[in-house]
Design goal:
Shape: globular
Strand content: 25-35%
Oligomer: single chain
Low-confidence stretches: 1-82, 88-133
Strand order of the largest sheet: 9-12-13-27-15
Mean pLDDT: 76
Radius of gyration: 29 Å
Helix content: 10-25%
Distance between the termini: 36 Å
Number of strands: 29
Number of helices: 8
Length: 450
């Protein structure tokens, strides 16, 4: 092999590019083959040619001897390796440089029958490794969305967000890092996976009850518009509480329940509360503390009818809904008494609580990002309604509206950026990279989206 390419005849070798990788000196991935067990048997038998061996059957060496074989003063630097296969033949293209080219040669690895498996540079160890141990949560992946370049500002206007100064959102934003990098967030048993985009640099404002009513839907619409591949059946969405909940460890679930129960234990009651049911995590407020955003009456855990009955057949906190363009006092209602279910909690985003997904879920920009899920916090004075957020350290919440009897037409204003999530089905073909976990490494390559 004196040129930059070599052709390998794999007539008697099964090929499966989803199961095995061929490594060079435990660093550079060259190819991906299936017949690992057969190769290892041949290696154990010593069926490998070294310098001095003859063509066909000749000198043999153990794997240890091959690994220790010298380049005789030559230095070979492998810059990059690419593989292409057609039928039973794989071509491996190696971008390499040599120094001190004296005695540089090559030899073949063979079976006892003389069938060629791979070509070997002297002194370089080739090893087949199962890739099931390679693709993992946190790996970078080269997902390429095919949405438009811009999400228009009129879709973020006051009738949708409660705020009148939101700007258009660019797919390739002019602030911070943008969504240039994607990482694996979750791997399913069938081989499919969820991947999450880097935190977007532009902020989205939500205000008051209008922001609460529409926030989840707007965040999902932004991500779907900009980061989908709809021709391939791939629809993007915003990260939501389900992504955090599914990553919770046993310790994380215990910590979540401890936080909620501790906060409920602190409630002592006041002239604004009619009852506190800590077992069911609900608080019932008197009429002048019974305002709520329009959407809340449709949600699980709400009690807006005045009879204390909690809704159990409603929508979840991450559900997308039809947009409510009501603003000001039209965006919220009042009941005779309001029963609200406590769903707010704070947890550190660390390995104890969120396992290996914690490094992926953390903010990398020292600012929070929206998590497209609603929540309710109950205190002795009122119920607080808002959207969830996540930061560099904590999974947290942001208030948009309160149930008190003050003028809520302006409500609370909150802004932060967002992160898209994409589900890649098990049919999506991914080529492994041995350095996909590192920020400076080569990400996993998606070779087919169908």
């Amino acid at each position: 092999i004196q040129g930059s390419t070599c052709t390998i005849n794999l007539t008697n070798t099964k090929i499966d590019f989803t199961k095995y990788s061929l490594k060079v000196e435990k660093q550079a991935v060259m190819s991906e083959l299936q017949d690992f067990e057969n190769y290892m048997k041949q290696r154990e038998k010593g069926n490998m040619w070294l310098e001095g061996g003859k063509q066909g059957k000749g000198a043999k060496a153990t794997a240890e001897e091959l690994f220790n074989h010298s380049l005789k003063g030559n230095q070979l630097t492998i810059k990059s390796i690419t593989t292409s296969c057609e039928g039973n033949t794989c071509k491996i293209t190696i971008d390499k440089t040599y120094q001190n080219l004296v005695n540089l040669s090559y030899h073949n690895t063979t079976t006892e029958d003389g069938d060629e498996l791979i070509a070997v540079y002297p002194g370089i160890k080739f090893e087949l490794v199962p890739i099931e141990a390679g693709i993992k949560i946190g790996d970078y992946i080269d997902y390429q969305p095919e949405g438009p370049e811009t999400y228009e500002a009129d879709k973020l206007g006051p009738n949708y967000t409660g705020y009148d100064k939101n700007s258009a959102i660019d797919k390739s934003p002019r602030y911070l890092n943008g969504v240039r990098t994607w990482r694996i967030l979750k791997i399913y048993d069938d081989g499919s996976m969820d991947i999450i985009g880097e935190q977007h640099g532009q902020s989205v404002f939500f205000v008051g009850a209008t922001g609460y009513n529409n926030g989840v839907t707007i965040l999902n619409d932004i991500c779907e518009t900009l980061y989908s591949r709809k021709d391939d059946g791939i629809v993007a969405r915003s990260v939501n509480s389900d992504d955090f909940e599914s990553a919770l460890t046993d310790e994380g679930r215990k910590a979540r329940e401890t936080y909620i129960n501790t906060e409920l234990d602190r409630l002592k009651g006041s002239k604004y509360t009619m009852s506190i049911d800590k077992a069911n995590k609900t608080v019932t407020y008197v009429k002048n503390r019974s305002y709520y955003p329009n959407l809340y009456e449709k949600e699980n855990g709400s009690g807006t009818t005045g009879n204390g009955i909690i809704k159990k057949d409603g929508i979840g906190e991450s559900a997308k809904v039809e947009l409510d363009t009501s603003t000001g006092q039209d965006a919220y209602k009042q009941s005779e008494k309001l029963t609200a279910t406590f769903t707010h909690y704070l947890l550190p985003i660390d390995e104890t609580n969120f396992g290996e997904a914690s490094e992926v879920l953390k903010s990398k920009t020292y600012s929070y990002y929206w998590v497209a899920s609603r929540y309710v916090n109950c205190n002795d004075y009122c119920a607080q309604f808002g959207l969830r957020i996540a930061g560099e350290e904590d999974y947290w919440t942001s208030i948009l509206f309160e149930s008190d009897d003050y003028d809520n037409s302006d409500g609370y204003r909150a802004r932060t950026n967002f992160r898209p999530v994409v589900h890649l089905g098990s049919g999506v073909q991914v080529r492994k990279s041995g350095t996909a976990t590192g920020e400076e490494g080569k990400p996993l390559e998606i070779t087919s989206y169908k």
